[in-house]
Amino acid sequence: MLNKPDQLLEEARKLLAQAASEADIEAVRIRFLGKKGELTAILRSMGSLGHEERKELGKRANRVRDEVESLIAEAKSKAATLLRAARFSAERLDVTEPGTPVSLGNLHPITQTIDEICRIFANMGYSVTEGPEVETVFNNFDALNAAPNHPSRDLTDTFYITEDTLLRTQTSPVQVRTLRGAKPPIKVISPGRCFRADSPDATHSPMFHQVEGLLVDEGVTMADLKGTLDTFAKRMFGERVVTKFRPHFFPFTEPSAEMDMSCFVCGGEGCRVCKGGGWIEILGCGMVHPNVLRVGGADAERYTGFAFGMGVERIAMLKHGIEDIRLFYENDTRFIGQFG
Amino acid sequence: MLVPISWLRAYTDIDVDVTEFAERMVMSGSNIETVKTFGAEIKGVVIGRVLSVEKHENSDHLVICRVDVGSAALQIVTGATNVTPGILVPVALHGSDLPGGVKIKKGKLRGAVSEGMICAADELGFDDKVTPLGSKDGIWVLPDEFEIGADAVEALGLNETVVDFEITPNRPDCLSILGMARETAAVFGTALRYPNTASEADTEQSAADFIKVEIRRPDLCGRYAARVAKDVVVAESPWWLQRRLMFAGMRPINNIVDITNYVMLEYGHPIHAFDIRTIAGDTIIVDTAKTGETFTTLDNAARVLDADMLLIGDAEKGVAIAGVMGGLNSEIEADTQTILVEAANFNPDSVRLTSKKLGIRSEASSRFEKGVSAELSGTAADRVCALIAETGAGRVVSGIVDNYPGKSVREPIDVRVDRVNALLGTELTQDEMAKMLERLEMDVATAPGLLRVTPPHVRLDLTEEVDFSEEIGRIYGYDNLNTTLHRDNVEAGCSRSWMLRGIVRETLTAMGISEIQTYSFVSPVGVDLIGLPADSDKRRFVKLINPLGEENSVMRTTLLPNMLDVLSVNFNRSNADVKLFEIGNTFLHTGEDELPEERIALSVGAYGAWGFFELKGIVEGLLSRLGIAGAVFESASDTGTYHPGRCARILLPVSGIAERDADDDAPLREIGFMGELHPDVRTAYDIGAEAWGAEIDLDIVIERADLMRYYTPLDRYPAVMRDVSLLTTEDVTVGAIEGIIAKTGGKLLERVQLFDIYRGEQIPPGMKSLSFNLTYRAADRTLTDEEVAKVHEKILNAIEENTGATLREV
User: Fold this and answer.
1) What three-state secondary structure class fits A146?
2) Which of B573, B579, B592 minimises the CB distance to A162?
3) Number of domains forming the structure of chain A
4) B116: which residues sit within 8 A by CB, 6+ positions away?
5) Interatomic CA distance for residues A69 and A84, integer angstroms
6) DSSP for A24-91?
7) Has residue A98 been placed in a domain?
8) Which residue of B280, B350, B383, B434 is surrounded by the most CB atoms within 10 Å?
């Protein structure tokens, strides 16, 4: 009789070792520790025993009960761990499966390029200003010192609405509007659409975008023009880029220049982007012609200034390696979507 | 402008290699398109003389020649038709190399051995268009001035570097070898050598004995200089002259024509030569043509002239269109004996317009229209005579007939030293500036702080002080200017419209919609395709006078047709789930003499995604982001563009009001439409799926946007919710009931939200059940059931009274 509790302990130990589930363990608990359990039965039956025997058996039975209880707790914890592991295993994902796409729209690459250019100049203190797409012949040509018979005025080059109004061929008329509307110091950047009578092909579009810049103040020099545009090139294309200024001709600036930039891809060694030359033509610029200042109502003796203009499509094409300008206006979502 | 370096060297020294030459020319303003080298690849080509030409037995188009190449007489088979015994030709020997990696080897042609190749000019690297006239479409018949067997590269001088300069429109003086030599001399500080213009002349007669000149339109012809040469023998030019023409891009024709072309390239002054036999009355009359007069030009085309065109005539007829092209009736013929050399100056605009109207662009017209210095005419005529004498093409007659009504004296221009420095940001001295200008052949006198500059007469572009700052700047070198930033007190900003358009773009892209950009000019057909009524304002187009085509002929009045075009392109390329927007100008005709009104619009378009309410949610979300409350969506069934039952007119209260104070009676302003596109419209655009669109006047939205946000204290007291289901007829709109609830609920009603619409068996046909969730809350206390019941009751009564909708028993 006295050995019965330890026999039960051994039996419980054996059963628990085999128990595979929570239910098996519970069955063990009920069998030994339940109200009608075997161990409980021993404790209940002790009344018929002698004092010493009862004391010894009680001691043994209680010890065994504690041990079985701890064995059950241990088995339960082990079963729970196994269960978790089985669940985790069942819930395992193939993390290499594709993610669920989140639909996010993106801006047109032209808008993005304009924003980037404008942000760089805004950080240098330039205000964004805009002008109309339909302009007067006066603002687009005369006020910008274009010769009365300059070929660019021809119907073959420029879209006309009437004899006196046209689709602006450049953003430069905004210079004229700005000068007329404000007193120096003037420091503006002006993005917008321009139009020229070119049939669309890979490198021509009858509509395109320019960003024009204008600074008019006392004491503005050509050195300031160089510094400003060199800073722009570095911010836009990277600090490695170096610039050079070549004399050129524009009717509304004197002196005039074109700015070339060392190729931002190859660093000047020559590659596909710079067509092997190592240099890329980026923009036209110059010191505002006194005639333009005068027409704009500024004192051409007191003030000097510089102006520059760049083609947005050209810069976007360079930056993104786009080879056909028509892609911008076709708006295929497979194209637009690449610039998100 | 093609400039052979060897020709340039005739007028100035070049001590640097081509790379450095090109680099420094570019940096001084003479931009270069290309630098092309000739001759370097050619090896083993010699001068040969054709001894005999015989028929090839097995071929109708091949001949067998015996050619003396000095060391031997070779048998060469050729297909050329212009090969005759006695001529000199370039012969590529066995094992020789030609441009483009071509190797010539001995071989058999139709059974006959060919020990080399007789070359055409293009096989030696020349463009077809410069092949001498006599060798066009055949082998190159060389002038008879070379030693047999000599290396052709050396004998002909085929090693050459030709620089193609890009000449800006302000520098017509650079459309000449001498002009480029002047630039070169200035850049490198070398001396400029002018060509010889003196010739030994026959003094028995004078030009005036042959010709009288009368200028009837001195406004269009500022100078007419004429010289005469007699005993002319029209023949091939000497090789040195042909060579220069060919490398400069012109085809040698005959000695007289070549010399006039040569002088044009050399000085930039066009020259014309007439056969004096054809000049009636020994008189040249410069006058405008008669309208409708026909005239046959050198190219054998009959041209119809008008009264604005300047015509060179004789006593009876026209002989040349001034500055554009000569007449067939007076051209140099093989038997021409006496020639009239015309060096005249014509008005640039006149030449430009004539050339444009007639569609003739010649080397002469393209120079005259950009401007030629009248001072050059005499020199150019003299140079022609000098070359005639030098090449033995004829005997020069003394004297010149020179009518020069347009002569003017060029005044010096004052240039302030400190002004130039102020513009360039330099500290150059007066002396340094003077030296730079003198390198450009300018006369410089000085006064304190002042340069008085007279530029060379060919520099028509230099007219005011600022022009000289560029000359000084480019000779000094733009690279040598400082690189600084201007200091100023200007603050940056942007317009409200610019800033808000940025927010609209951000909001829409965050909603998963991508941006497009489309042309501002469109086809007028678009408004038909989107079904606009005949009297729509959007048909009042701003029209282009000279569009590229009908499809780009008017300025857009609506963005929708472009949006539909783009949806169509994407649909037909099987791009799925397309959601797009565009922000751009629309153009409204305001009056003949005014610029059109440009209004910024927003269009949204989609297929494969959304339904009506997703689109509406986007519009509402956008308005909410811009802080615009009180938008009203009215059913619109007559737009033509949209599905009649699935279109809303979007309106905003005329003045801004807070949402809670929304008032049914507040005046509204239409800002646009949205809805499902009409099946006819999407069929017209070939979009084979339901598509959605919206167009909104963004200018109004921007004007009304309010980005200020005022803090509302967080709720401290609990809300009371009441759900209500209303049974109503189909004609009662959700908007109407919501309006009544909002108005009646007053301050205690926090929110009303529709959560279910039911139509079906449980309710009578033609009826619908609308379920709303009403939230009541007070800011300062917990609401009691009695308080809520009172308001709720009031709301239900108001709904029933106004719409007949009743509480639905569930």
Assistant:
1) coil
2) B592
3) 2
4) B67, B69, B74, B76, B91, B92, B93, B94, B96, B104, B106
5) 22
6) HHHHHHHHHHSTT-HHHHHHHGGGGS-HHHHHHHHHHHHHHHHHHHHHHHHHHHHHHHHHHHHHHHHT
7) no
8) B383
**pLDDT digit string, tens, across residues A238-288:** 999 999 999 999 999 999 999 999 999 888 888 888 888 889 999 999 999
A277 and A202 both lie in a single domain: yes
Residue B366 touches partner A, C-beta closer than 8 Å: no
Q: How far out from the chain centre does Cα A65 lie? A: 67
**DSSP label at residue A283:** E
Q: pTM here?
A: 0.85
Total residues belonging to chain B? 810
Give the E-state strand segments of A139-197 in sequence order: 165-167, 186-195
Minimum CA–CA partner of A304 in chain B: B423
Q: Which of A42, A59, A90 is the last residue of a domain?
A: A90
Distance CA B614, CA B508 (A): 13
B570 touches chain A (CB under 8 A): yes
Distance (Å) from the alpha carbon of B32 to chain A's nearest alpha carbon: 11
> Based on the domain organization, do A193 and A119 belong to the same domain?
yes
Question: Which of residues A90, A119, A144 is at a domain's end?
Answer: A90
What pLDDT digit, counting tens, does each position of B178-229 carry? 999 999 999 999 999 999 999 988 889 999 999 999 999 999 999 999 999 9
- Asked if A232 and A270 sit in the same domain, the reply is yes
Do residues A81 and A133 both lie within one domain? no
Q: Is residue A97 part of a domain?
A: no
Q: Can you tell me the distance from the alpha carbon of B67 to that of B88, in angstroms, rounded to the nearest whole number?
A: 9
Preceding amide of A109 cis, omega within 30: no
Q: Identity (one letter) of the amino acid at B173? A: D
- Quick one: CA torsion of B454, B458, B459, B463, rounded to 10 degrees? 60
The Cα–Cα gap between B586 and B573 comes to 28
CA distance B768 to B766: 7
Residue linked to tokens 């221009």: B413
CA–CA dist B135, B275 (Å, integer):
25
Q: How far is CA B45 from CA B52, B99, B116, B156, B313, in A?
A: 20, 11, 9, 11, 49
- Same domain for A244 and A214, yes or no, is yes
> How much is the average pLDDT of A111-120?
96
Please give the ipTM for the structure prediction: 0.86
- B479 contacts on A by Cβ (under 8 Å): 244-245
Same domain (yes/no): A56, A119: no
Q: Is A103 inside any structural domain? A: no
- Gap between the Cα atoms of B438 and B460, Å rounded: 17
Contact: B483, A248; criterion CB under 8 Å: no
Residues of chain B with confidence (pLDDT) below 50: 658-662
Question: Domains of chain B by range and CATH?
Answer: 2-38+162-188 (3.30.56.10), 43-158 (2.40.50.140), 201-403 (3.50.40.10), 413-478 (3.30.56.10), 496-704 (3.30.930.10), 720-807 (3.30.70.380)
Q: How far is B145 from chain A (nearest CA, A)?
A: 42
**CB-CB contact of A150 with A144 (8 Å):** no
A272 and A300 housed in the same domain: yes
Token digits for B339? 């020639």
Domain with A138 in it = 109-339
A-B contacts (CB, under 8 Å)? 247
The CATH number covering residue A213 comes to 3.30.930.10
Please tell me whether residues A54 and A114 are part of one structural domain: no
Output the furthest CA–CA distance in chain B (Å, rounded).
Answer: 132
Q: Is B505 on the interface with A (CB under 8 A)?
A: yes
Mention every residue, 6+ apart, whose C-beta is less than 8 A from residue B773.
Answer: B721, B722, B723, B751, B752, B753, B755
pLDDT of res. B664: 56
CA nearest A135 in B: which residue?
Answer: B595
